[in-house]
Structures are given as C-alpha cells and as structure tokens.
Design brief:
The protein is of the alpha+beta class. It has 6 helices and 9 strands. The protein has 3 domains: 52 residues; 94 residues, GMP Synthetase, Chain A, domain 3 (2-Layer Sandwich), CATH 3.30.300.20; 66 residues, R3H-like domain (Ribosomal Protein S8, Chain: A, domain 1, 2-Layer Sandwich). The strands form 3 sheets. The chain has a 3-stranded antiparallel sheet with strand order 1-3-2. A 3-stranded mixed sheet has the order 4-5-6, covered by helices on one side. Strands 7-9-8 form a 3-stranded antiparallel sheet. Strand 8 and strand 9 form a beta hairpin.
C-alpha cells in the first residue's frame, strides 16, 4: 500500500485518488494518523493514510454439478438461514457490560495518568505560546485530577500574563482546554493562576455584584456587566440567587457572554 499525506484526512484521500486514478469507493484506505491542525500553528501534524486499489471480484452464482449424489441442475436448494444475533431490548441494561470495581479502578488510574502526561505537554505549550508574545513565563502543575488541572504560572511581569481584566489569562485557559482535548482529555477544566490572581478576582467579582445590586435597587433598571468567563458568571449567579430584590441571567455567546442583574 502507498502512503499519502495532507493537511487533513480529506486532502490525503484526494491525493490518493489522484495518484491511483480511482475514487475513494474503489480504494482500500487505512488511516495511519488523523493529523492535527495545532494551535497558533504549534504542534501541527499532517494526516497520513495508506491506500491501494481494491481487487474487483465478480461474484457469479455457483453452477450446480451433476455428479452422482449431488444436486441436479434443475433441483432447488433449500435456503440456508443465517444465525442472527439477538439484540437486547432498547434501553434495557446490559448486565454483562457493567464494570467491576477492579475495572473502574483501572480506568480511573488510566485517566489520571493520561491527564498527568497531557499536563506536562500543556506546560511546554503555554511557555512556548507566551514566549511567542515575548513574555517569559515558567509553569508548574499545582493540582491534577482525572478531569481538572490547575497550573501555577510565574513571570517577572504578571500583568502581561493576566492581561486587561484577565482577558489574556482567560483566553489561555480556553486554549489550554482545547490543547488537552487534542491530547485525548475531553471536557477538561483548566485553571491558570499567577500570584493568587484567581482569589483576588473572586473578591473583586463579589464587590462588583454588591455595587451592581445597589445600582439596580436605586435606579429600578437592569445593569449589564462586561463579558466574563463561565467561572466568574457562576460565582455571581450563586452570590445573588437568594437576593429578594434582584435576579440574574446571562446573555450573549462565548467568549462575549455576560451577566445582567435586573430588578425582580
């Protein structure tokens, strides 16, 4: 089989079709590497496939033989019934599919190892990406579970790492989650912190909510806050959910989703 490469699987298949002069339906294709587009052009990898032309086999109906003791030309063979696997009822639990405690433990250990290995690569990615912005940072894993990772950043210029109102560090959190997804860790929760910025930000968000409530009660009109990440919106919702004078809701789309505090 010949090997073909492309920016993605589609381009690799197109190259195979052009080189072999056949459509993809006439090719036997094996995916060697689905490739990776990378982030900011980093860690990009081409897609690789191997392909060859399928051998065309013409299936002809077998001719009955006239040897003594076998089927005569005009005889009709009885149909052969194939065994069809029984399907379980829709929605019925498959008891054999239930995992044993040992299997659950083994899978959990595997997930922990996968996150740990991906977090090491994530640190290299973050330092490289910040360096592309001419910001020298170092990083370490402060906490790691199967689905969550907290990374502590360190730099001589923390303000450049954080950005205006935390926009840069928040953006890098989004990129970090995407990077972990490329590494096979889906729906990971990433927290980046530097010089206790996250705790200070929570205090600022709490004060912001208190001032907004005063403005809403005084004016009788809703207050529209600046866009903020989901973690900060959740903090405000929780802070004001039992307030008898105001209600909160989110509007807009990520990454510009924001909170509205309105009178009840």
């Amino acid at each position: 089989m010949s090997e073909f490469r492309g920016a993605d699987l589609k381009q690799a298949v197109l190259k195979a079709e052009h080189a072999l002069g056949r459509s993809k339906e006439e090719l036997e294709i094996e995916v060697l590497d689905s490739g990776r587009r990378g982030l900011f052009g980093l860690f990009a990898r081409p897609a690789r496939i191997s392909a060859r032309v399928l051998a065309v086999v013409e299936s002809a109906a077998p001719q009955p033989r006239t040897v003594q003791g076998e089927v005569e030309p005009n005889s009709v063979a009885a149909p052969v019934e194939e065994a069809v696997p029984k399907e379980s009822a829709v929605g019925a639990p498959d008891l054999q599919a239930e995992l044993s405690p040992e299997e659950i433990t083994a899978r959990h250990e595997h997930n922990l190892y996968r996150m740990s290995a991906a977090a090491v690569k994530l640190i290299d990615y973050l330092t490289t990406a910040y360096r592309a912005l001419r910001i020298d940072v170092s990083a370490r894993v402060a906490k790691s579970t199967a689905r969550e990772v907290e990374i502590e950043l360190n730099a001589k210029t923390p303000g450049q790492v954080i950005g205006y109102h935390g926009r840069r560090i928040n953006a890098f959190e989004v990129l970090s989650a995407a990077f972990l997804s490329y590494q096979g860790v889906k729906d990971a929760q990433v927290t980046l912190d530097i010089e206790n910025y996250r705790a200070k930000r929570e205090e600022a968000i709490t004060r912001l909510g208190e001032r907004a409530v005063i403005d809403v009660i005084a004016s009788g009109q809703a207050v529209f806050l600046d866009p903020m990440p989901a973690r900060e919106r959740k903090l405000l919702h929780k802070q004001l959910e039992e307030n008898r004078n105001v209600r909160t809701y989110s509007q807009g789309r990520e990454p510009f989703r924001s909170i509205v505090i309105a009178p009840k």
